[in-house]
Amino acid sequence: MGITYEEAEALLREWTTNPSLVNHARAVEKVMRRAAHVYGRGEDDEPIWALAGLLHDADYDHWPDEHPARVVAWLRERGEDAIAHAVEVHVHHHDVPAESTLDRALLACDELTGFVMACCLVRPDGIHSLEPKSVIKKLKDKAFAAKVDREVVRAGVELLGAELPKHVQVVIDALRPLASELGIEGSAR
Fold first, then answer.
1. Mean per-residue pLDDT, 11-17
2. 180: Cβ contacts below 8 Å, ≥ 6 apart
3. High-pLDDT (> 90) share of the chain, %
4. Cβ neighbourhood burial of 19 (10 Å; 0-12, 13-18, 19+)
5. Whether the predicted pLDDT of 125 surpasses 90
6. Closest Cα to residue 90, out of 112, 116, 108, 73?
7. Predicted confidence band at 95 (pLDDT cuts at 50, 70, 90)?
8. Which of 144, 147, 145, 164 is nearest to 156 (CA)?
9. pLDDT value, residue 188
10. What are the angstrom distances between the C-alpha of 144 and each of 51, 116, 128, 153?
11. Whole-angstrom Cα Rg for the chain
12. C-alpha dihedral sign at 88, 168, 145, 124
């Protein structure tokens, strides 16, 4: 069965009206596309990994207390079990084991993508000169982007078998071409 990108995008538009959440979904989609080439099988994995990134929080806006049950059910009804499982892992990472590289990649990319975007918002030139060492330094500052669970970031990167500086660079490289669209190009531009 499966779903098309257009169906996923329509669901995101229908279920997610908060512009910040839509922006986050699009950012994680782009990072997951890049991650498919770094950690997965490249073009073979990219479509599925992109859908996982795009839809991982699709039900959060309207049903935060049920998240991710609605989007997981929607995905399973359409035969997208691998994406559904990855979405479950990203929320219930302690209860639902990460079984695939897709699961581990979504866990490693979601929180870190949001964190990198937060780093960009406090820099005059946004993402344009952002380096992994700056992101890692900010990760140590618990007051900065305090809602980002540093343990989830650490565990995700570790489960993926990646090194934190290199993984941060993957996220930066994926987001940089979309700086204007995502609002992370800085005020100096």
1. 97
2. none
3. 93
4. exposed
5. yes
6. 108
7. confident
8. 164
9. 65
10. 29, 11, 20, 14
11. 16
12. negative
- Is the pLDDT confidence value at 48 over 90? yes
How many residues are present in the chain? 189
CA 109 to mean position of chain CA atoms: 5
On the question of a cis peptide bond just before residue 47, with omega within 30 degrees of 0, the verdict is no
Given the structure tokens 């479950």, which residue do they identify? 88
Q: Is residue 1 over pLDDT 60?
A: no
Whether the CB-CB separation of 54 and 75 falls below 8 Å is answered with: no
Q: How far apart are CA 187 and CA 37, in angstroms?
A: 31
b/e code 87-120 from CB counts within 10 Å (16+ = b): bbbbbebeebebeebbbbbbbbbbbbbbbbbbbb
Token readout for 134 is: 């700056």
Tokens representing 145 are: 């982007």
